[in-house]
Specification:
The chain is α/β, with parallel strands linked by helices and about 350 residues long. It has a domain of about 100 residues. About 30% of the residues lie in helices and about 20% in strands. It has eleven helices and twelve strands. The radius of gyration is 21 Å and the shape is globular. It starts with about 25 loop residues before the first strand and ends in an 11-residue tail after the last strand. It binds adenosine-5'-triphosphate and magnesium ion. The site of magnesium ion has 3 residues, from helix 1.
Length: about 350
């Protein structure tokens, strides 16, 4: 299979997919360290460690990794929603030229919901249970666009229709508990879209839904991205979701990026053995039926500090002394036929399988 991206250079912190369109969001060397007082000293946990990726208009960047790999902490750092104390955020996150990590809080609050919208996993905890869904949408519309009550209500009806909720004029009057899980997630998406955001950050938007509804919601998000040129950061642990919708993939393990590539390239020639393991553990309908799925041995807790070795080494079939030199760099894949923008952090990349 051939790569999808045009040629271009990519350094260790370079873009996943070189393209003519400049990135709307450029995350550069983002680190988040949680600090806690322990006895007389302090303990530090580096949950996100030097993460870089770009998100471009009309494209979906997926952030993938097992539980605890730092995906949500990354999104919370970008949106200024980490707890006010007990953490240190470093790096840059340029959104249309403004650094989200250093803009004043009032400016960030203004950007959130207008230019930058979020969709979270659990709509029930994000929606207000005692306010009709229509009113929750009109509040956002009015706050950010200054529209009058009647115009905002019309917009709420239009948005609910656009996210595929039948009979939206009736549904605007209903409370969250009167809607199904899939519909509540659609309401969340409608709220996120209320102000025509330029960037949507969706953290596990379909995890709480059953598979058929998952597919519908993913389809809806991808249509919006394509039709409106929105940029999207899609956070998920599910490579099946990624296959259906994204353009570029960033794979995280223990707080660091281990591999980054255009989606087709990553699926066709995964080079980090963690990525290969994730792919081998996804059921596929488009190939010969394997005897059984291959789980990745060990658990995400079996990690060593990146400063001492590749954090995945304890679970890796190819792990040896070379992996324990510490502080490996994310570098362009040196293998034959690598697509531009394919970066990998590994001493012994997986062999490239012939198509
Ligand atoms: N407020 C906090 N204080 C201390 N550690 C935290 C805090 N929030 C997250 N962490 C730690 O940061 C690491 C990354 O967590 P994060 O929630 O980003 O994982 P995730 O990749 O989103 O996982 P999941 O797929 O389960 O959502 C975890 O080890 C977690 O325990
Ligand atoms: Mg998470």
């Amino acid at each position: 299979m051939s790569a999808v991206a045009p040629a271009g250079a990519a350094g260790p912190a370079g873009p996943a997919t070189p393209s003519a369109e400049p990135p709307l969001l450029s995350v550069q060397d983002l680190s988040v360290t949680f600090t806690a007082r322990r006895g007389s000293g302090r303990s530090e946990v580096r949950a996100v460690d030097g993460v870089s990726f770009d998100v471009r208009p009309g494209r979906v960047m997926a952030l993938v990794g097992e539980s605890g790999s730092g995906k949500s902490v990354t999104s919370l750092a970008l949106t200024g929603l980490l707890p006010a104390r007990g953490n240190r955020v470093e790096g840059r996150a340029l959104f249309a030229g403004e650094d989200l990590l250093t803009v004043p809080r009032a400016r960030l609050a203004d950007l959130r919901g207008r230019e930058l919208a979020m969709v979270f996993q659990d709509p029930m905890s994000s929606l207000n249970p005692v306010v009709p869904v229509g009113l929750q949408i009109t509040e956002v519309v009015r706050r950010h666009t200054g529209a009058g009550r009647a115009a905002a209500k019309e917009r709420a009806v239009e948005l609910l229709g656009r996210v595929g909720i039948p009979d939206p004029r009736r549904r605007v009057r209903e409370f969250p508990h009167q809607l199904s899980g899939g519909m509540r997630q659609r309401v969340m998406i409608a709220i996120a879209l209320a102000c025509d955001p330029r960037l949507v950050i969706a953290d596990e938007p379909t995890t709480a839904l059953d598979v058929t509804i998952q597919a519908q919601v993913i389809d809806l998000l991808s249509t919006l991205v394509r039709e409106q040129g929105t940029a999207m950061l899609l956070i998920t642990h599910d490579l099946g979701v990624v296959a259906g919708v994204c353009d570029d993939v960033t794979v995280m393990y223990a707080g660091r990026v281990v591999e980054q590539a255009p989606r087709r390239e990553l699926f066709a020639r995964p080079r980090h053995r963690y990525t290969a393991g994730l792919l081998a553990s996804v059921p596929r309908l488009d190939g010969p039926r394997p005897e059984r799925l291959t789980p990745i041995p060990g658990t995400p807790r079996d990690v060593v500090a990146w400063s001492e070795a590749c954090a995945f080494a304890p679970r890796c079939t190819a792990g040896d002394d070379a992996c324990r030199r510490g502080d490996l760099v994310l570098a362009p894949d040196a293998g034959a036929g690598a697509a531009p923008g394919h970066l990998v952090r590994c001493v012994h990349p997986a062999p490239v399988e012939q198509p």
